[in-house]
């Protein structure tokens, strides 16, 4: 309340543009044309009264007739032989893993419906990222191939097998290479099957190449430590984190695991102990990680190396040439270096660059900081990205020389995601037989001779090893939906091995993984993983010639330095584009820009002004001789003279939902020093035409009311109540209504604004759990997205007169580079005095004795008064019958994807309001389980879907009537405040103030 | 009904037991007694054996030829011992029947077993005779069939011609009579009509003159229509009494009533899940593997059970399962709308509600029908009156809180939120 900071969601709001004011007048973007119909002109022209009466009369008659029909026949078809473990109506959980994370798959009547983290796992165990939660939809993707193909025609597996074996024999006889090109494969089983193939065909080789390359780190570590690996990072042990353009909470390496660890030093428990880490971020585009940083400095991509050199100099006291000359950065580096040096052993520097020299310099800095061991673990190293750009180059050269007889592509789509697709096509033309294991005829697969569609991880036996010593199992939860076969089985068949894949996986585990662990196969099926590594790594010291590395960095930086610089990045949501056909992910707003269903060129507003660009403008971005046209997003925080473009969009052959969404930016990348580089010199100029992005940032705006509370760590230490601005502390409140007793449970939630990173996996988890429809780009433009839970992202600019004197030195409000961000999850607050309840004419939304605001869809008849009266703007209206309307078939409404629906939640019809139900099906389920087991409900028995997906533990749910519950403890925290408390609606969701650990003078 | 049948059943059982005892006592001589054998056979063997058919165990016909009497006695007494001892014939049978050992009948004396063998032999002979008889008759019939049929047809033809001739003469006579008396008939008809018309008209005129009566009648009609209309409207979508025809004439009266099979045996889901669930066909096969109800179908397989066998693709003769099962498509009787959440286990396991409370006297239903209206009013009425099962530890904290509010009063489901929308609609 006392804060005079101005929070805004977008530039439209900051500038109060006419369009923004207009669209925020009403709850809904497009008013119903009631006036037109009722006034005289309306009666005589468009919808005359007589027609209306005719329609009404006909409707009444039709309904009367329809009501006369006899009981509809519904068939009930039981199993012939019921599987022993299936009880209709009760979910089963299977331990499996996705991208190496141990997860639990929930199935109902034999079909997987959701995925949650395995709470006992090693590493990431309290949440999942958005692609993991959404992956269950890919199982039912109707754009996948339903049969193997040769030359674009469906064939039997037997025919495919004979063709492939003949080709392999031919290649072997001619002494030609057989190459398997894949992304990183860390599955012991897959590697064993490849080895099996290599035994039969000795010319077989396996090449790994990742769309987003981390070759720089691997090579740098080979040079520095003699270990060509990517280390594991344990941010839980880091009190000071400096990141140079590494989106380590998002897409960089194991972003979700980093989030879990990083937040442990920043959440309410850590603050309660008076501890909070400090995070300084140097980057060009505003990444999700940057939006969570305590201090963020906007730099150009070409300055990344210079910043690291300057940082090295500051820490070691050396004076190596090439340090940054950026004044803002210099100030920050001085402060950061001091912090890092003070926190030796608990400080770490990470860099997002894929340049070998830059990463070598980072190794040198981290050695100085003593980060190797507790924070950077080279013993239990990560095996998630082992791709080598050089190896792929080598393959292309060999293929072009006609030495490759057979090429298999496994999870690899280079024609889409390699920067030089023409080169790949030319090489493939020289290969005698080419085959892809893709589950769909994607950009690469459709150019090849054959496709052997692979089953998804939910239909396959397998395993993964995302970290040295960690082995996770993949077990099937359903029979293959289509006529697909898992890759490993195909490789075995082609190698002449008739072992079934189940036996193969089991034998491989029993022979190579389980010995020495004291566990047997069945234990693994239950626990899902086995860990043979150590708890911490040992200390390492980098052997780096800093002078030569620095001069190389300076030279290479010159190649990308320019008036305008382009930075390509992997978006937190869409990643490298492999999930592009997943409608849940396409509709998930980007954590920072809040754009859905598109990628865009992010440009600083002032820079856009210089280019003559406004809202809905388009630009041509030109780099490395390639150019693409993109819509513009005016992105506060973006460095002047830079443009950021997300990768992973612009797929052309991924499926009905993902085709032609955005533009492919991979061609703008380049190869420097043998590694793929995502930064480049660029030209940006205004393009013709306009394009309206489906951006949700100003939807559901809370009228500029003061709903964010923010303080600094220093103030918090002095007074934990600092800036919490609780209305009740200074005002007496009066109730118009009688107090409603809640003698049983009282369900409440606490949300820690300091923990929420804005990643959005909770939104996807909520969608999956509650059968929330995907509405598509056009409907999002009309502000009709259906998400029950949204994450509001607020910007602030430090205005004059703040206490942060040091910050003032580096702040220049005029260029919009220095913004800070707060992410606020917003969902139904389940108000005790809910304004929506009092205006509903049919009592469709009423309060419960457990403190929940119930919504009875079958009572609702769509007046939408409730949505108009909701101060939090969290109610959503079904403008269409999304589950029975062919316009939405490409997203969720088709016979396959409907199988992902949660059978415990009703799908809502057109004309009905909906909103967060606080996962009431889970509450009821938890209570029933307690009753059946004849016990009291324990804290933690009931978890919300959003809570279960949150690796930052930002969402805490429970029973306020249990004083010992986690949520009761959290809500007793001094930081807790209630949003719009002053209007006395008595919300049941408490928020905790955002605390920023800024530099103090 | 149930009581009577069970009493009868018990009576029959005790009589048969006492008969067996009687025989056992009186028959001390070594002579093999077919009657005693019959009683013993029925008491001990029929669960698994038939004379002429392979059931759980082999068909018994011809066993005396296959094995010596001595061997049979020893086998019946304790087959497992013989198998263990390695008797080749015993091991062969044991292997053939999937290593399922026959129950040991050590309590039967050698003589009793011999009696059974004698009975089997006797039955076998009877069956053979029966099989031979119709065959002979059939052969005779087929040779004589053609002649017999031709004679029959000719006889029928002659008879038909005779009937036609007689009827023709009757018609002609009647027509003659009509022509002679036509005038008299016309006069009588006219007279009658005039009389009736005047009576109807008189009544109508009198009724219309009485305006009060007309008004009253109209009022009554409107009221009647209103009441009927109101009732119909309220029952739109209510299917109380709905009794669709099922693909298999499954009788709950036999299974739950006469045989007293617990509901849980087939509908286990009701105790642990939201769905009561229709049992899968393999549950039916637990019993119907041997129960064929052939006593009611002259030794043939019941046609309804045959449908079950078709569904699981079971061949009762070879006793083998095929690879082409076809699930049974039952017609759902109880249809709740999608927007209403109902959980069986909450009501059955937690609240302890009897199945019959909602499903009616299911154990007397030949064909199941919807007993309850399944309307929201019906749910709510029950929630208002049903007391919470306070023994459950879950309610401890709830009841504690409530006792502070309302001392000594009973607590119904409605009082702990059982009427709130979100309890059933989400």
UniProtKB/TrEMBL annotation, chain A:
<protein>
    <submittedName>
        <fullName>Molybdopterin oxidoreductase</fullName>
    </submittedName>
</protein>
<dbReference type="InterPro" id="IPR030948">
    <property type="entry name" value="TAT_var_transloc_signal_dom"/>
</dbReference>
<dbReference type="Pfam" id="PF13247">
    <property type="entry name" value="Fer4_11"/>
</dbReference>
<dbReference type="InterPro" id="IPR017896">
    <property type="entry name" value="4Fe4S_Fe-S-bd"/>
</dbReference>
<feature type="domain" description="4Fe-4S ferredoxin-type">
    <location>
        <begin position="747"/>
        <end position="777"/>
    </location>
</feature>
<dbReference type="InterPro" id="IPR009010">
    <property type="entry name" value="Asp_de-COase-like_dom_sf"/>
</dbReference>
TrEMBL record, chain B:
<keyword id="KW-0472">Membrane</keyword>
<feature type="transmembrane region" description="Helical">
    <location>
        <begin position="213"/>
        <end position="234"/>
    </location>
</feature>
<dbReference type="InterPro" id="IPR029467">
    <property type="entry name" value="Cyt_c7-like"/>
</dbReference>
<feature type="transmembrane region" description="Helical">
    <location>
        <begin position="148"/>
        <end position="167"/>
    </location>
</feature>
<keyword id="KW-0732">Signal</keyword>
<keyword id="KW-1133">Transmembrane helix</keyword>
<keyword id="KW-0349">Heme</keyword>
<dbReference type="InterPro" id="IPR009056">
    <property type="entry name" value="Cyt_c-like_dom"/>
</dbReference>
<keyword id="KW-0812">Transmembrane</keyword>
<keyword id="KW-0408">Iron</keyword>
<dbReference type="Pfam" id="PF00034">
    <property type="entry name" value="Cytochrom_C"/>
</dbReference>
<dbReference type="InterPro" id="IPR036909">
    <property type="entry name" value="Cyt_c-like_dom_sf"/>
</dbReference>
<protein>
    <submittedName>
        <fullName>Cytochrome C</fullName>
    </submittedName>
</protein>
<feature type="domain" description="Cytochrome c">
    <location>
        <begin position="32"/>
        <end position="124"/>
    </location>
</feature>
<keyword id="KW-0479">Metal-binding</keyword>
<dbReference type="Pfam" id="PF14522">
    <property type="entry name" value="Cytochrome_C7"/>
</dbReference>
<feature type="signal peptide">
    <location>
        <begin position="1"/>
        <end position="31"/>
    </location>
</feature>
<dbReference type="InterPro" id="IPR036280">
    <property type="entry name" value="Multihaem_cyt_sf"/>
</dbReference>
């Amino acid at each position: 309340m006392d804060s005079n900071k101005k929070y805004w969601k977008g530039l439209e709001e900051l500038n109060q543009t006419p369009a923004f004011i207009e669209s925020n007048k009403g709850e809904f973007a497009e008013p119903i044309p009631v006036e037109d119909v009722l006034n005289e002109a309306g009666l005589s022209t468009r919808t005359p009264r007589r027609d209306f009466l005719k329609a009404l009369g006909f409707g009444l008659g039709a309904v009367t007739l329809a009501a006369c029909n006899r009981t509809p026949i519904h068939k009930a078809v039981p199993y012939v032989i019921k599987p022993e473990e299936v009880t209709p109506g009760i979910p089963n959980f299977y331990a499996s893993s996705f991208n190496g994370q141990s997860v639990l798959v929930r199935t109902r009547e034999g079909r997987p419906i959701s995925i949650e983290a395995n709470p006992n796992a090693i590493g990431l165990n309290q949440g999942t990222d958005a692609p993991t939660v959404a992956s269950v939809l890919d199982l039912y993707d109707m754009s996948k191939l339903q049969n193997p193909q040769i030359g674009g025609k469906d064939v039997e597996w037997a025919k495919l097998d004979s063709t492939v074996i003949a080709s392999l024999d031919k290649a072997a006889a001619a002494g030609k290479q057989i190459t398997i090109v894949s992304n990183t494969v860390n599955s012991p089983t897959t590697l064993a099957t490849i080895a099996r193939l290599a035994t039969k065909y000795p010319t077989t080789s396996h090449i790994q190449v990742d769309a987003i390359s981390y070759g720089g780190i691997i090579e740098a570590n080979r040079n520095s430590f003699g270990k060509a690996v990517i280390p594991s990072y344990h941010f839980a042990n880091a009190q000071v984190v400096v990141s140079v353009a590494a989106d380590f909470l998002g897409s960089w390496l194991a972003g979700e695991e980093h989030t879990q660890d990083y937040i442990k030093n920043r959440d309410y428990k850590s603050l309660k102990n008076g501890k909070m880490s400090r995070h300084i971020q140097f980057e060009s585009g505003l990444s999700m990680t940057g939006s969570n940083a305590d201090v963020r400095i906007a730099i150009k991509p070409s300055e990344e190396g210079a910043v690291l050199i300057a940082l090295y100099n500051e820490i070691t006291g050396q004076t190596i040439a090439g340090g940054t000359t950026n004044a803002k950065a210099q100030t920050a580096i001085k402060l950061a270096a001091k912090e890092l040096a003070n926190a030796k052993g608990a400080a770490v520097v990470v860099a997002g660059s894929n340049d070998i020299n830059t990463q070598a310099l980072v190794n040198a800095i981290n050695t100085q900081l003593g980060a190797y061991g507790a924070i950077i673990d080279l013993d239990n190293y990560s095996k998630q990205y082992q791709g080598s750009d050089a190896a792929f180059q080598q393959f292309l050269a060999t293929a072009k020389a006609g030495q490759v007889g057979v090429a298999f592509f496994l999870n690899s789509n280079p024609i889409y995601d390699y920067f030089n697709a023409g080169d790949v096509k030319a090489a493939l033309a020289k290969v005698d037989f080419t085959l892809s294991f893709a589950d769909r005829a994607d950009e690469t697969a459709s150019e090849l001779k054959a496709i052997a569609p692979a089953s998804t991880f939910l239909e396959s036996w397998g395993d993964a090893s995302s970290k040295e010593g960690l082995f996770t199992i993949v077990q099937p939860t359903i029979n293959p939906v289509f006529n697909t076969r898992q890759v490993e089985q195909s490789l075995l068949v082609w190698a002449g091995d008739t072992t079934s894949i189940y036996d193969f996986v089991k034998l491989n585990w029993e022979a190579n993984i389980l010995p020495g662990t004291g566990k047997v196969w069945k234990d693994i099926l239950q626990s899902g993983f086995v860990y043979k590594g150590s708890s911490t790594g040992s200390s390492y010291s980098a052997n780096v010639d800093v002078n030569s590395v620095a001069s190389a960095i300076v030279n290479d930086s010159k190649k990308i330095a320019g008036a305008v610089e382009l930075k390509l990045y992997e978006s937190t949501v869409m990643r490298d584009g492999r999930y592009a056909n997943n409608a849940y992910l396409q509709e998930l707003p980007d954590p920072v820009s809040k754009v859905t269903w598109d990628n865009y060129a992010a440009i600083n507003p002032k820079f856009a002004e210089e280019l003559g660009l406004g809202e809905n403008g388009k630009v041509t971005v030109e780099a490395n001789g390639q150019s693409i046209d993109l819509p513009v997003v005016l992105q506060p925080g973006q460095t002047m003279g830079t443009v950021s473009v997300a990768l992973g969009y612009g797929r052309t052959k991924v499926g009905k939902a993902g085709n032609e969404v955005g533009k492919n930016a991979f061609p703008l990348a380049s190869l420097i020093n043998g590694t793929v580089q995502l930064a480049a010199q660029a030209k940006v100029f205004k393009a013709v035409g306009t394009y309206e992005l489906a951006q949700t940032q100003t939807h559901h705006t809370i009228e500029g009311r003061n709903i964010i509370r923010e303080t600094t760590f220093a103030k918090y230490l002095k007074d934990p109540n600092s800036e919490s601005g609780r209305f009740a502390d200074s005002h007496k409140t009066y109730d118009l209504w009688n107090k409603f007793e809640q003698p049983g449970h009282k369900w409440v939630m606490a949300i820690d604004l300091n923990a929420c990173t804005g990643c959005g996996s909770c939104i996807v988890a909520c969608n999956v759990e509650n059968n929330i429809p995907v509405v598509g780009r056009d409907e999002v433009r009309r502000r009709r997205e259906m998400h029950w839970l949204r994450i509001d992202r607020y910007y602030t600019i430090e205005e004059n007169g703040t206490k942060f004197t040091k910050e003032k030195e580096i702040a220049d409000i005029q260029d919009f580079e220095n913004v800070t961000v707060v992410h606020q999850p917003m969902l139904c607050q389940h108000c005790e005095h809910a304004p929506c309840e009092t205006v509903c004419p049919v009592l469709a939304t009423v309060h419960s004795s457990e403190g929940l605001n119930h919504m009875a869809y079958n009572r609702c008849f769509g007046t939408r008064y409730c949505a108009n009266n909701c101060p939090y703007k969290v109610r959503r209206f079904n403008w269409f019958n999304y589950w029975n309307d062919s316009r939405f078939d490409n997203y969720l409404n088709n016979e396959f994807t409907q199988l992902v629906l949660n059978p415990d939640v009703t799908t809502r019809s057109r004309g009905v309001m909906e909103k967060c139900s606080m996962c009431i099906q889970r509450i009821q389920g938890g209570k029933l389980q307690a009753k059946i087991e004849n016990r009291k409900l324990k804290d933690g028995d009931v978890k919300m879907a959003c809570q279960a997906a949150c690796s930052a533990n930002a969402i805490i749910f429970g029973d306020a009537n249990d004083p010992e519950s986690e949520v009761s403890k959290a809500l007793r925290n001094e930081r807790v405040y209630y949003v719009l408390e002053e209007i006395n609606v008595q919300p049941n969701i408490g928020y905790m103030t955002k605390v920023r650990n800024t530099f103090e003078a | 009904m149930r009581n009577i049948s069970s009493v009868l059943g018990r009576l029959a059982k005790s009589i048969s037991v006492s008969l067996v005892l009687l025989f056992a006592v009186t028959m001390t001589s070594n002579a093999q007694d077919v009657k005693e054998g019959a009683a013993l056979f029925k008491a001990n063997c029929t669960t698994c054996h038939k004379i002429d058919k392979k059931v759980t165990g082999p068909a018994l016909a011809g066993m005396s030829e296959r094995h010596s009497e001595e061997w049979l006695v020893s086998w019946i007494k304790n087959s497992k011992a013989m198998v263990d001892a390695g008797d080749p014939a015993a091991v062969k049978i044991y292997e053939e029947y999937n290593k399922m050992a026959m129950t040991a009948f050590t309590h039967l004396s050698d003589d009793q077993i011999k009696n059974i063998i004698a009975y089997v032999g006797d039955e076998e002979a009877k069956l053979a005779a029966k099989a031979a008889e119709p065959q002979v008759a059939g052969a005779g019939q087929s040779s004589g069939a053609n002649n017999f049929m031709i004679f029959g047809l000719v006889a029928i033809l002659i008879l038909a011609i005779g009937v036609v001739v007689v009827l023709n003469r009757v018609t002609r006579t009647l027509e003659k009579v009509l022509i002679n008396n036509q005038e008299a008939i016309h006069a009588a008809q006219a007279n009658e009509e005039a009389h009736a018309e005047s009576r109807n008209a008189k009544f109508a005129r009198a009724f219309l003159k009485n305006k009060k009566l007309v008004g009253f009648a109209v009022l009554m009609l409107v009221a009647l229509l209103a009441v009927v209309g109101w009732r119909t409207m309220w029952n739109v979508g209510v299917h109380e009494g709905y009794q669709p025809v099922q693909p298999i004439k499954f009788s709950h009266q036999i299974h739950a009533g006469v045989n007293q099979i617990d509901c849980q045996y087939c509908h286990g889901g009701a105790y642990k899940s939201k769905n009561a669930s229709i049992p899968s066909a393999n549950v039916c096969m637990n019993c119907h593997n041997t129960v064929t109800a052939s006593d009611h179908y002259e030794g043939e397989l019941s046609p309804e059970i045959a449908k079950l066998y078709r569904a699981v693709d079971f061949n009762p003769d070879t006793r083998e399962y095929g690879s082409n099962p076809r699930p049974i498509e039952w017609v759902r009787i109880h249809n709740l709308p999608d927007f209403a959440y109902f959980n069986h286990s909450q009501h059955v396991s937690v609240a302890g509600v009897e199945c019959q409370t909602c499903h009616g006297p299911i154990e007397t239903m030949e064909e199941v029908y919807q007993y309850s209206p399944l309307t929201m009013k019906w749910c709510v009425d029950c929630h208002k009156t049903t007391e919470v099962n306070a023994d459950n530890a879950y309610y401890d904290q709830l009841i504690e809180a409530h006792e502070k509010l309302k001392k000594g009063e009973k607590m119904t489901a409605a009082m702990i939120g059982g009427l709130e929308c979100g309890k059933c609609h989400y």
